[in-house]
Task: structure prediction
Amino acid sequence: MSKAKAVPPGAVIGILGGGQLGRMLALAAARLGLRTHVYAPEEDSPAFAVAHAHTRAAWDDTAALSRFAENVDVVTYEFENVPLQAVALLARMRPVRPGERALAVAQDRWREKTFAAGLGITTPPFANIETEGDLAAAARAVPLPAVLKTRRFGYDGKGQVMLRPGDDLAMAWNTLGRVPCLLEGFVDFACEASVLVARGMDGVVVAYDVPRNEHERHVLRRSHVPSGLAPRTELRAVEIGRTLAGSLDHVGVLAVELFVVRQADGTETLVFNEMAPRVHNSGHWTEAACDMSQFEAHVRAICGWPLWPPERHHDCVMTNILGHEAKEWMRWAAEPGVVLHLYGKGTIREGRKMGHVTRLLPSHGAKTRQA
Amino acid sequence: MSKAKAVPPGAVIGILGGGQLGRMLALAAARLGLRTHVYAPEEDSPAFAVAHAHTRAAWDDTAALSRFAENVDVVTYEFENVPLQAVALLARMRPVRPGERALAVAQDRWREKTFAAGLGITTPPFANIETEGDLAAAARAVPLPAVLKTRRFGYDGKGQVMLRPGDDLAMAWNTLGRVPCLLEGFVDFACEASVLVARGMDGVVVAYDVPRNEHERHVLRRSHVPSGLAPRTELRAVEIGRTLAGSLDHVGVLAVELFVVRQADGTETLVFNEMAPRVHNSGHWTEAACDMSQFEAHVRAICGWPLWPPERHHDCVMTNILGHEAKEWMRWAAEPGVVLHLYGKGTIREGRKMGHVTRLLPSHGAKTRQA
Result:
């Protein structure tokens, strides 16, 4: 990495998307002396309040996008469903990191799975369904139970239908609006895990410890670190993250969600679920338990700053605060060793991610807690 | 503490002063879901960029101060030289924490030393000089070498004259403009230390580990934690912090700078130097090495949130980045375990505080650093 390429302190990072991930990126950037300009269509975007500047405009507002690009030095995004046209426009004016390739792959479940499988990473059996004519072949290729998922714009369990033996694939496809879908064999997993790696412009990849993740109603509820998985399973998870990041020529944080399947003899195998070319909910604990958070790692990477291997100083459990649980903030605030993070969202909605807490577990390395 | 009194997430903290301390308070508040409104006269105030709102106006602009008060839920300050008239106006409209008393005492070196001495805390010999007539008595009470300091508005060695045996006190007083001064016996200290405590609205006081501080040209250069001082010296330092905070009915962080004098037999005694009713440069390491930073502790206290004893997970050394050293940011950014904080100041001036780094020392408690 040449120093000349680095985006220096004082420069402006353009962030596409104004949710909590954008907000946490902006806070991490501020600590490094970098400014942020957040672009989002939603009026109540929580990232606006902590950014140096913001643009509230639609994704297809080319004039607003151009002005935004003129005012920033590098562009990144907090979610992978940014319209590719917007990114393409910005990329003609400013570097966009991670680039269009990572975005294009991550936006499409079929491309994503095909890409991972092509790298020798185990995936569930899967088949592409674009037309009525694809249904029969898909049904043959993927035994039920299986999950039918829209190829695009799915998240937190949205755009999915579970198919059990005897269910009708054509009917399920109609339910999802006959849009391009992926039929994916159901994985009978013992638990879920993820790997978070950050890759710099110089190709250096650093990895965080692997969290074990618990979901409730398709939404992440808790991440546990350490994972309790076999050391070789964790090593394989990191290898998967490195392989994907390298093959995509990714710059920034890449998160990969994995199913852990336990064989009869107790050995664990990892099955690729999906990836996110961005900071990820299952890495929120890094801000409380590591000397470099995933948010800082992402900012460093996209700015061409050096990355070094983050050190974790505590075991921990990260728990999402969802919907009306946010009203109980005082309960968490009162608990020693619980690092509270609230996203400043004005409106509570059922299941909405309002914040998270990282509970730091008693550590032999702790120096002192003064009374 | 009653829950009813707490300033809840979503509320607005008004911060007087827009420097790096205000900026770091704003960043800590944001993580707790609180908004901030920064009031400062200087156009290039680094806190403006991370606050939800800001007012750029003079300290005597009563209309601007009133509007500011209307838009915030609680007021705090990042520096103790906020004009008392401004604070008095605000205090009629909103709670100001820490209150006017802490501010009035901390703004005046004579009141401050008198207050500390009255609590049985060792101070250097000192005398008040308000008129020509006070000079002779002061010279008798305080043997040279001594330091003549303006009672008000001194910081980082400004407004001070060193007097050695044979020097003329009257001439020194003329040099300082014949304003009210304090003549203070020079303390032949072995080193300097400070204590940082946070006191809640419920009277609960929590303390950080005591840093040992190195100054260069009257400006803090480095803080070392642990201090290397005798355990009983550290305990006494914390006791001094608790006593002062309690006696002032202080709410928020209080920092006390202390001289450590080493006797011939090796025992250490602590001599009060000065105090700051706010977050303090010698506590910047807490953001990198503790589970609750001094900034969060201050925000919690002034908002009536619970405080719990912070735990330090690493030994560390905090170093200020001064003036043109900021150009060497890449050197620090590249070093593993060095937590970099830059203040986003656009203009470099000789000796200006541009940022700081906290070097985390290898810890037995560290879990893993993934390669």
Remarks:
- Chain A has three domains: 3-96, 125-185, 191-360.
- Chain A has a mean pLDDT of 94.
- Chain A touches chain B through 62 residues (CB under 8 Å).
